[in-house]
Amino acid sequence: MFSHPLLVLGIETSCDETGVALYDTHRGLLSHALYSQSEMHSEYGGVVPELASRDHIRRVLPLIRQILSAAGVDLADLDAIAYTQGPGLAGALLVGASISAALGFALNIPVLGIHHLEGHLLSPLLSKPAPAFPFVALLVSGGHTQLMEVNGLGLYTLLGETVDDAAGEAFDKTAKLLGLGYPGGPALSKLADEFVHSGHSKYFELPRPMLHSGDLNFSFSGLKTAVLTLMHKHEMTPDTRGAMAFAFQEAVVDVLAEKSLAALAKTGLTQLVVAGGVGANRQLRNTLCRKAEQIGATVFFPEFEFCTDNGAMIAFAGAMRMQETSDQDKRTDVFTINARWDLEMQGLCT
Amino acid sequence: MATVESHSSDSFLKILALDTSTEYCSVALFLNGEVISHEILAGQRHSELILPMVRQALGEAGLTLTQLDGIAFGVGPGSFTGLRIACGIAQGLAFGADLPVVGICTLEALAQEGGGGRIIAALDARMSQIYHAAYEKEAHGWQLIAEPALCSPEDAPLVPNGNWTGCGSGFDKYDQALRARYGGSVKRTISGLRPHARSIAQLAAPRFAMGGGIDPADAMPCYIRNKVALKEKER
Fold first, then answer.
1. Do B68 and B41 reside in the same domain of the chain?
2. Does the beta carbon of B227 lie under 8 angstroms from any beta carbon of chain A?
3. How distant is the Cα of A145 from the closest Cα of chain B, in angstroms?
4. Structural domain that includes position B146
5. For residue range A256-279, what is the model confidence (pLDDT) as tens digits?
6. Does residue B15 sit in the same domain as residue B65?
7. Strands (DSSP E) found in A232-348
8. What is the residue range of the signal peptide feature (chain B) (predicted)?
9. Most exposed: A34, A233, B44, B216, by fewest CB within 10 Å?
10. Under an 8 A CB cutoff, do B96 and A54 touch?
């Protein structure tokens, strides 16, 4: 893929996870490390941006030392640094951006700002077998729910997105309603999976929002209200709680799967790539694989550890971008962040 | 934060200092006892300005990072985001160039800007509060009289009676309230003073000379205001 090997350090600090990684264009991913602040924020019932920023600046350098040591490479071996430029929490992004820019300055190597969602979009390419362009990508996380047509590096067309809550956000909010704490999305999935295997007969039916909207957009905020309505009507026993978790997960997964298949039909493509934290959801994985098989399509998932925010996807996207960026653009002392940043609007797409 | 002794060996040091704790962005080079510096009113554009300013300063002095003995930065208190920009830049530069770091309290840098004597340094902390500290200049450095703290102007820690000078954005904004608090002890105020990289460079030099530089991974901002959100059980 590349004539000269390039070693890229990736730094991700857009939200509540500090991720760093070393990607070599010939040897692949050399090492990576992630520190999750999830436990710290759980006491606050959500991510506190200022606390997230304060933690990132404690973690980045120790994590970089850890991965350099694990890969057996020196700082001097680096060819470029890639950092998450946005979207995300401004203060958190600035930590990764300032350290990256200064380290690049000191080492006299290029520093590239990477779009967080581009990192997620490309993360399945870190797995084997990897999909080849073109493909449809379902980006589904606590911050995003989008369907994208991906025709190549930087060639992204938005097919549809959520009009309100992201799917992962709906999972977390509903989990909170059900008393599963924060962030409770994974706990809700676990409860739903246990319920299904427990043989209980209780069953609730929840709506499938926008399933027949005729477009590829999503809406998830109504589902948590629907769960709240159920909670008011029924005595909350472990059984009913499990049944509600199951009904909620089933509704979200159904809509995500149906719209993903509709996106394949619309674009005529046969590869679906799933990225983002909700991509770790087992029922989503099972349902998508089953339905895709029925129409002769293939589904690709990132490794579990690369579903959530991580440094590997940023290092990888940085390595890809290094080939496409002019030398002039690569070298700048001015570092920028874009807390709000539309993947289609920033000249990343052509 | 104890008295810092000036050391003759600091005159051989080369130090880069930076401060982004306020709406100003400043960079300084301590070169064998001399200080050259630049300051720009940055608003919120520190991230665009700081590294070009560093490059310019190094270029003017004909130096590269690796020829330096260390990097100093204003640790705070000040704008949280600004403190992290200076800290992140100091961390990245020092890590990449294998240099030690010294963090200087922005209130002490403010006192240094005030000259000498007895200084009450106060920075506007918003939310009707100030960051406050008091220092007395002695032969070899600043003696800390009142520890850096967050308080309302009306409750600012008292200082021994005497001839005090007030300075900083805290005095600029709450001059009346602070003068009332200190009775006649504050004999004068100097308006428009702010922490500056040149002061950070001067204060850092003796610390580097005494081997006080730390590993860049240990360089951290000092926010003073540490309660920034309520836990669920506290609401």
1. yes
2. no
3. 28
4. 107-190
5. 999 999 999 999 999 999 999 899
6. yes
7. 271-275, 298-300
8. none
9. A233
10. no
Residue B4 phi, psi (nearest 5): -105, 125
List pLDDT tens digits, range A205-227.
Answer: 999 999 999 999 999 999 999 99
pLDDT band at residue A329 under the 50/70/90 scheme: low
Average pLDDT, chain A: 92
Q: Which of B94, B97, B220 sits opposite A57 (nearest CB)?
A: B220
Superfamily of domain A129-301: ATPase, nucleotide binding domain (3.30.420.40)
- How many domains does chain B divide into? 2
- A143 has binding-site annotation: yes
Q: Cβ separation of A106 and B90 shorter than 8 Å?
A: no
Instruction: Establish whether A281 is an annotated binding residue.
Output: yes
How far does the CA of residue B194 sit from the closest CA of chain A (Å)?
23
Decide if A50 and B80 are in contact by the 8 Å CB cutoff: yes
**Given the structure tokens 């990607």, which residue do they identify?**
A23
CA distance B204 to A228: 59
State whether B160 and B87 are in the same domain.
no
Within 13 Å of residue A326, how many CA atoms lie on the same side as its CB?
A: 2
A139 carries a ligand binding annotation: yes
Residues B66 and B177 occupy one common structural domain: no
pTM attached to this predicted model: 0.92
Residues B15 and B60 in one domain: yes
Is the CB of residue A171 less than 8 Å from the CB of residue A187? no
Protein fold of A7-122+307-331: Nucleotidyltransferase; domain 5 (3.30.420)
- The domain that holds B77 is classified in CATH as 3.30.420.40
Point out the residue among A44, A57, A104 whose CB comes nearest to the CB of B232.
A44
